[in-house]
């Protein structure tokens, strides 16, 4: 795993505005994910590093101690706008960003590859949590010779402050699209996805054409900091939730003090396919009252009928609580592959009927109340 690219990026951060830590650096900016085969060595390593501070004591904290005091972020002017930034860079004039790092997120036994990609946008392409960037892969569009490729959208997996907390980067969670010939079962590289492979193969320093940001459906409603947010994801659909959770539980944002409940349901194939699991597990330890996390591993776990455990089966296990929370105004989000929605809707309908409720009426009420947020692709 390409740990080194990330771990060498020095970042000035302060914790809870503690001046003594202002000149510290994060040795590791990749908070909370690791090669699956390694030990769960979560370490946020704060060291006094600038020349002026060399005489001060070196301060090393494990994440266990460090994660409660939240991480200071800047510039706080990113909180000022009343509306989210939209379409700052269009397809005809994209912004040229730079790849900071590409890190494989999944273990060896995961089917397929998913990468965490950090892009430096120099603060020029600001965004809000839940928005997407467009990426134009290099090369010519084979369907329109002489023209660039079509833009592909990717949900942003970081907060507006980025993984280095300085408002200059955005992170993407990209699954490499690979084509297998249905007859031979063999991979056909000529038909592999253009943009996802470009991103997963890119190297620190490579240039990347960005458009956007775009999307309002998955913006995190912040009017009530004590609200409940039920987040349902399959695979890379977890991207916007990683951003939400960092904003809720990791960052010290003076204008958003989260005191509600965030409940994540994540569906993937197996343990090796879990994404950002260390980061989420840490929130469970540190914020048991504010965070719940349920994983559905379709190839490892069985549902109550002995079938594969899909994310809707996990929701069904907790359907009483989920329905009560929705009745009390909880937001519910769905993000991931399009194919996830029919199974989920079917389960929710079944549960509603068992409760003597009409799902159609409930759904239209949830939509009317702006509690229902879906972004599938
Ligand atoms: P393309 O080149 O567009 O190919 C698409 C598919 O067709 C691939 O599976 C490819 O293998 C197959 N294919 C290519 N040629 C042939 C052929 N001749 N015959 C048959 N099949 C062929 N994706 C993520 O990974 N992470 C995200 O966070 C994410 N967020 C998204 C958010 C939104 C709002 C939307 C709309 C999409 C999002 N996507 C995300 C999906 C992403 O935009 C791309 O669609 C995806 O990465 C595939 O793009 P590609 O260029 O790699 O594949």
What does the model show?
The chain has 377 residues and is an alpha/beta fold. It has nine helices and 16 strands. It has helices at 3-7, 63-66, 194-201, 239-250, 277-286, 311-317, 319-327, 340-354, 359-368, and strands at residues 12-13, 24-26, 46-48, 71-72, 95-104, 114-120, 132-136, 152-155, 169-175, 207-214, 228-234, 251-252, 261-268, 291-297, 331-336, 372-376. The protein has a six-stranded antiparallel beta sheet. It has a five-stranded parallel beta sheet with strand order 14-13-11-15-16, with helices on both faces. Strands 1-2-3 form a three-stranded antiparallel beta sheet, with no helix packed on it. Helix 5 links the parallel strand 13 and strand 14. Helix 6 (311-317) packs parallel to helix 8. The radius of gyration is 21 Å and the shape is globular. The model is unreliable at 1-67 (pLDDT under 50). The structure holds flavin-adenine dinucleotide. Residues 132, 152-155, 173-175, 177, 179, 191-197, 236, 239, 375, 377 line the site of flavin-adenine dinucleotide.
